[in-house]
Amino acid sequence: MTSDTVDEQFEADNLTVQIVDRILKERFSARFYLPIPVPRSAIEDIVDAANAGPSGFNMQPWNVYALFGSVKDALVKDMLAAFHADEPSTAKFDNMAVNVPEEFAARRRELGARLYGALGVSQDDLAKKREIQARNFRFFDAPVALIFTLNSQLKEGAWLDLGIFIQGAIIAARARGLEALSTPRYNDIIRTHLNFSPKDIVACGMAMGYADHEQVRQNYVRPAKRSLEEVLHIVGA
Ligand SMILES: Cc1cc2nc3c(=O)[nH]c(=O)nc-3n(C[C@H](O)[C@H](O)[C@H](O)COP(=O)(O)O)c2cc1C
Fold this sequence. Notes:
By secondary structure, the chain is of the alpha+beta class. The protein has helices at about 5-25, 40-50, 70-85, 100-120, 125-135, 155-175, 185-195, 215-220, 230, and strands spanning about 60-65, 145-150, 180-185, 200-210. It has a four-stranded antiparallel sheet with strand order 1-2-4-3, sandwiched between helices. About 25% of the residues are buried. Bound molecules: flavin mononucleotide.
């Protein structure tokens, strides 16, 4: 390889570094979407890219359902009815909703304060808070709803695999100008709408679409991330 091609290679790699880091750092949870349809081909390309990700023993334990139009609307209708009827979650895994250690609970409180505070809702305005929570079950009016499922016979390692797959989808979406946000799930209601194996459980829902950046700017202050010093523990260097 000549020095020219080494330089060219370096430049190309450097650009890749900039793009990838930018996508990772500038992505955010979009809770406001434009009513612009997402082409089916974009979802296919995004999932195709995520599907190339690594998994323990190459088991690839994920499935993802992409809901459009009337199929999405019918699910939203049923989930909203369940939410308004105060039906309990039917999530098939423990998402640590209670007894969260203080370190993590503090971040959760901070997020709540930011989400409701930015929308001008006081912490004790329960009716308004519920109205905002209901938006979760509408997938924040995003044009596409994704449902990620996992085989329930697999152990914790499969959740790692799925998390990597989901992040792959988020990055691939961001690269196409689409934003994504994980949402809650009513496992049993979703099962009635999608024909997935009884061995599979809903791990995560996701809204995906083109963000309404003006609304985001007005209503969302992204929560702080932990500092590098706090997270990275370099030893032996
Ligand atoms: C597994 C998972 C579930 C989430 N569930 C919700 C949710 O139900 N509602 C919501 O508004 N945000 C949800 N989020 C988004 C987080 O609140 C968000 O990622 C976090 O506050 C950091 O903000 P950022 O994504 O803008 O960097 C979820 C994120 C993940 C990874």
